[in-house]
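Supplementary Data S3. Sequence and structure tokens for construct A.
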Amino acid sequence: MSNNNVKFGEVDYESDVFGGDKKPNNNKDLFLRLADGPNDVRLVTSPFQYSVHKYKKEGDPGFGQKVGCSIVHGSCPLCELGDKAKSRWFYGVIDRKTGHYKVLDISFAVFSKIRDLARNAKWGDPTKYDITILVKKGAAPNDYYNVQPIPKEPLSASDQQLKDNADLDDLKRRCTPPTAEKVQERMNKINGVDGASNGKKVAAKPTSTKAPAVTMASDDSLEEDFPEYNADGQA
């Protein structure tokens, strides 16, 4: 039985994003990595929401690896271990530094600030103006990310072409929940279990190694953090 409270896919800024509480495109350069300091972008799509766990094998002192949550399909091995999935969002954006289309992957820390702009009558729809995502590495968690609007300006002809060509199907695919079997396979692979696709389960809980005080740097994710799933949640 599926969990109807789990939100995924394209959402709007008035949605309760917490629900009350294969087209190949696998180039890591497609993802925009937020650098320390200002990052100027133009959002050209709606936000696409998905749920994800961070999982690491015993003894791993790092941030862990992303594993999609399968609870929408009725069960999730990581949820069963007591690890609560977190919501994240994909956007298609124009990276003003390169002038190229990129996929931006953000946590609630950034999404909430974009949503505040969208709900502000002065600014409104954030696809109508550029924004600066200011990263202050080493700052306190509440000040690690800031989002600043740039005065409204229409898209250029080249910008409009990038927006028109934004691959919405790719964003939908990226936020499609995997099956429980695929989550288990991903866990097995992270743990180095032989035959990751044979259904063998890993019972050990994620390591309890203390995380760094500021964990926002885990937003600097690359494509390899995201295994490929089609619309049926299969790899």
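Construct B, processed identically:
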Amino acid sequence: MRICVRTERDSAGKEVPCGFQLGEKQLRVVTIVRRWHENSQRHFEVQVEDGRRFVLRFDADPCKWDLAAVFRAATK
């Protein structure tokens, strides 16, 4: 699913997601849980304020972001 992602530069100067729009909601990334590369794609597993986790995928060619996976918040 294609999505709109806001980015910022990390301490190494690389662009990383800091928020994204999901439907009508703007979600703020509070933590990047992990990141990895596959071919020309960069993947970011992120956590938002309500505890849910998402995998955001950036494809450099063409320049686009996709929602690759959704995980519900951990139960207490």
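Strands lie at 4-9, 15-22, 25-38, 41-48, 53-59, 64-71. The chain has one domain: 4-71.
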